[in-house]
Amino acid sequence: MAESNDAVSLDMEKIYLGGKEHFIQTGCGSVSVIVYGDQEKPALITYPDLALNHMSCFQGLFFCPEAASLLLHNFCIYHISPPGHELGAASIFPDDPAPSVDDLADQILEVLNFFGLGAVMCMGVTAGAYILSLFAMKYRERVLGLILVSPLCKSPSWTEWFYNKVMSNMLYFYGMCGLLKECLLQRYFSKEVRGSAEVPESDIVQACRKLLEERQGSNVFRFLQAINRRPDITEGLKSLRCRTLIFVGDSSPFHSEALHMTSKLDRRYSALVEVQACGSMVTEEQPHAMLIPMEYFFMGYGLYRPCHFSDSPRSPLSPSCISPELLSPESMGLKLKPIKTRVSLGQ
């Protein structure tokens, strides 16, 4: 049954102009889902990276007027938080069994069934992209398409495994300490926005640092354990038939992982967007870079954004207004691979 949390719901209404939080009991614990928009529209579900929730992982994208217009005109948004990652979450009881990545993917199915949703569009970042990819492989009929940001698909390399073990130890003994937050910020953002002795860190990094401070270390520890024990799902990618759009920053620690994943997907249904001078969290660091690729992606589903929904003098979905120069690396900081995918999205 859904439970209400008035304090959090009010916060969401102030920030998201009507978003409402639901707590849904699933087979592996309670999960927070914030619903924003008209529930008669197609559903887009989001899943964030480690130690993040919708505020720290997706607000940059949804506060970008053109991207928000595109997404909210076409979808009702369901922001799913990993267990214990929602705003104001208390520590999960230590005796509760820690979920595996399969448990987390199955939890998404329970969320969809709770809301009576059929096939949905999915958007996930890094660890969240892995969970949604696994979900799409297990329940293919429930996924319309995947938008993956700096995704994972292989089991951890020795380097990542060791790095995750170090973070796990810090979480276990010290909680959300300063050093751990620095490790996470390096995971999310490029050096350009993290700053240096000469250059102050950007507002998005400062905001993310503050949001990390309220995370319960024991809850992050549980999610990190699941991700560090994840199996390789590369072989299963070949069976995916939903369209897939992958974004990755060229400064992301998971850049090679995204290239590997793209190489294993059916090229008829997938495209890669590399964003220059950007880390893993393209949704926060360069959300504008996601706009035009997403527009072409959604055009394959017959979705659109009318002119009057745009705050911009141009309508990005009007072909007469999309000049080829907009898709060049020089003007957009993008490399689209393969560029022709936008033409062959129809099945």
From TrEMBL:
Keywords: Membrane, Transmembrane, Transmembrane helix. It comes from the Eukaryota. This is Pollen-specific protein SF21-like. InterPro entries: AB_hydrolase_fold, NDRG. The chain crosses the membrane at residues 114-136. Pfam families: Ndr (PF03096). Belongs to the NDRG family. The gene is LOC110750953.
